[in-house]
Design goal:
Elements (H helix, E strand, L loop, with lengths): L2 E2 L4 E2 L4 E2 L4 E2 L27 H16 L2 E4 L2 E4 L2 E3 L2 H10 L13 E11 L16 E6 L24 E6 L2 E13 L2 H11 L6 E4 L2 E7 L3 E5 L7 E14 L3 E2 L2 E2 L1 E5 L8 E4 L12 H5 L1 H5 L4 E5 L2 E5 L1 H8 L2 E4 L1 E2 L4 E4 L18 E5 L2 E3 L4 E2 L8 E5 L1 H4 L9 E5 L3
Parallel strand pairs: 7-8, 19-20
Antiparallel strand pairs: 1-4, 2-3, 5-6, 8-11, 9-10, 10-18, 11-15, 12-13, 13-15, 14-15, 16-17, 20-21, 22-29, 23-24, 24-28, 25-26, 25-29, 27-28
């Protein structure tokens, strides 16, 4: 963690200037994207401590294994306790345990945690602070911004936004804990019975609810305690290796769970100004062609012409640039026909007009005033030329091509 540079002190407040610090890592910068309020949700901060692992192992022995022995033809449940300082001192000095009144405790199972170390094959990449990518992400599509509607009785709500609530949790520490489980019984037959009940649970996941950990049982050692003037006891020690995970509610003074919302899509709309109606000509503005990648990516362009604005999206752009050629069929010296249909304008929902087509006779452009034609989307096209203005008649060998917006 960076520390304040004590040489740079604000004399008015007698506090170091947080802008200038010194340390091995870069100064922390406030990211407003991660500053999301948590007082309006019910999600608990993820936390798993050493106590949770201890409790899970003890709970599993008491409730799942349920060790029992037979004494005087009666089944007796064996109590399970955890070794605190006083109890372990008695066991270490005497080899057995007595209660407050001095009575010898048998049968009984005592758990003692010996060591804990981080697993070598699952070490985290912490360098002074948790890296940004070292996290687990949980997504929830339903949130206050995406409320469901009842199909039978719809509640008037705003248009749902494409938003997901995200909870980001730091990756926990993977640790290995070593326990000693000590068993005391009065007779060897009782000890054998007790050990036989525990051994089949090796390599099982010991724990309760979400706190379950792989537990391996080591080699069992037996010992007979026979002190002078004391009752004889049979003791067994079973080592347990537990693979657990640890996650604090806060690490480096930062909470290990954060709430975020999915990133929204920001769309920039371009504006193009032209001097003519783009739907009244076959000429495509160069500014519109330059914005074709923006339109293809889901954006749109506003075309301003003659005091009107037209929103050009991907469908409209395909209509504008979709210029194709059709060859006419000779009918007589003044008339040709085209076996094709005019396209429908997706913006105006009308058939393409005459100005959206160019007619060529033998490669020569023909002015639109020379011929009459009303494009149609349901019948064959008929084009009638004014041969008096054209200066010649149409021959059967002439090639008449119409370039424009065909369906």
């Amino acid at each position: 963690m960076p520390r304040y540079n004590r040489k740079n002190i604000d004399r008015k407040t007698n506090k170091p200037n947080p802008i200038r610090t010194e340390g091995l890592t870069p100064d922390q910068e406030l990211n407003r994207a991660e500053q999301t309020r948590r007082d309006d949700d019910v999600i608990r901060s993820a936390q798993r401590t050493v106590y949770d692992i201890d409790y899970a192992i003890k709970w599993y022995i008491e409730n799942e294994i349920q060790p029992q022995i037979t004494a005087n033809k009666n089944l007796i449940s064996v109590p399970v306790i955890f070794a605190n300082g006083e109890k372990w001192d008695n066991v270490r000095r005497l080899g057995y345990l007595r209660d407050e009144k001095g009575k010898l405790q048998s049968p009984i199972i005592m758990l003692k945690r010996n060591s804990m170390q981080e697993r070598d094959n699952n070490r985290t990449l912490d360098v002074n602070r948790n890296p940004v990518g070292n996290r687990i992400i949980h997504r929830s599509k339903y949130n206050s911004r995406n409320r469901y509607e009842d199909d039978l009785f719809p509640i008037p709500t705003n248009q749902p936004q494409n938003s997901e609530k995200i909870y980001v949790v730091d990756i926990p520490k993977y640790v290995t804990l070593e326990y000693e489980m000590m068993l005391w019984c009065d007779f060897t037959t009782q000890m054998n019975e007790l050990v036989d009940q525990i051994l089949p649970y090796g390599r099982f996941a010991w724990g309760n609810e979400e706190n379950r950990f792989e537990t391996a049982i080591g080699s069992v050692t037996f010992e007979t305690v026979n002190s002078v003037g004391e009752d004889r006891l049979v003791r067994a020690t079973i080592p347990l290796t537990v693979k657990g995970t640890l996650l604090s509610a806060q690490e480096t003074r930062l909470e290990t769970i954060k709430k975020m919302y999915s990133v929204k899509k920001v769309t920039f709309i371009n504006s193009v100004d032209v001097d003519y109606n783009i739907f009244n000509t076959t000429i495509i503005p160069q500014q519109l062609l330059a914005a074709s990648q923006t339109i293809a990516g889901g954006g749109s362009v506003i075309v301003n012409s003659g005091g009107t604005s037209t929103n050009i999206n991907a469908v409209a752009m395909a209509y504008i640039t979709g210029l194709t050629e059709q060859q006419a069929v000779y009918s007589n010296s003044t008339t040709v026909t085209v076996n094709a249909l005019a396209a429908i304008n997706p913006v105006t929902l009308k058939v393409a007009n005459k100005n959206e087509f160019d007619v060529y006779v033998n490669g020569q452009y023909i002015d639109k005033s020379v011929y009459t034609w009303t494009p149609s989307d349901i019948i064959t096209q008929t084009i009638v030329f004014d041969t008096g203005v054209l200066g010649y008649g149409i021959d059967a060998t002439d090639i008449v091509v119409i370039n424009g917006r065909w369906a």
